[in-house]
Amino acid sequence: MKPTVIMTQTLAYQHEQVNVCHMPLLSTVACSFDPKVLEIEYDWLIFSSQNAVAYFMKYFGQVRVKHIAAIGKKTQEYCEEQGIAVDFVPDDFSQEGFLAQFEADAHAAILLPSSAQARPKLATELGQRGYKVTKVDLYDIEANEAVVDQVYAMLVNQQADAITFASSSAVRALYDRHPNIDFDGLYVIGVPTQKTLSRYGYQGIVAESQTLDAMIDKILEKGF
């Protein structure tokens, strides 16, 4: 029998070897920002997620940029679906992986549109390298409380074999509202997400790479 897996990320996902129950714990809302940042000519535009691409598309034609970078294969593919050619994708789909491989000319101007709750590491370290970084908060994230309660009920009633978290925000959405859940089939993308989970007193299994497919591979290793 296929395992039932609660997938909590915003974007839908399917896998033929598991029964996916798509329960997005988060919803996104657009933020306002100073449009003057679009008047600058940038050497690099860095997309860290598909959501960032989706929210930035209506501004893309207004900005002058020489090169595009994407963090993650899915982000790259989504860019290309929108007609945006990507010049650089790191091998490791994380901020740390990006920083380990990314190089640009000295004092390069970099535009970084992302979530208001994105980890500051990428923008901070690029700035420390002498690049001129413009961070734009394109959208914010809110807990989808009705879905959070549904997921909680599924977990306590043992209606799922596993739950996945692709971000620290998703972890916080569930455990801020329901801190005590007797369920240990927890799977995460990335060490930062694991660290957030551990602060609530839980341990999750970390995927080998920063992809949803890698999380499913970890779940299937249990021999369902």
UniProtKB/TrEMBL annotation:
The lineage of its organism: Bacteria, Bacillati, Bacillota, Bacilli, Bacillales. It catalyses: hydroxymethylbilane = uroporphyrinogen III + H2O. Its EC number is 4.2.1.75. This is Uroporphyrinogen-III synthase. Residues 16-216 form the Tetrapyrrole biosynthesis uroporphyrinogen III synthase domain. Keywords: Lyase, Porphyrin biosynthesis. It comes from Staphylococcus rostri. It is an enzyme of class 4 (lyase). It holds the Pfam family HEM4.
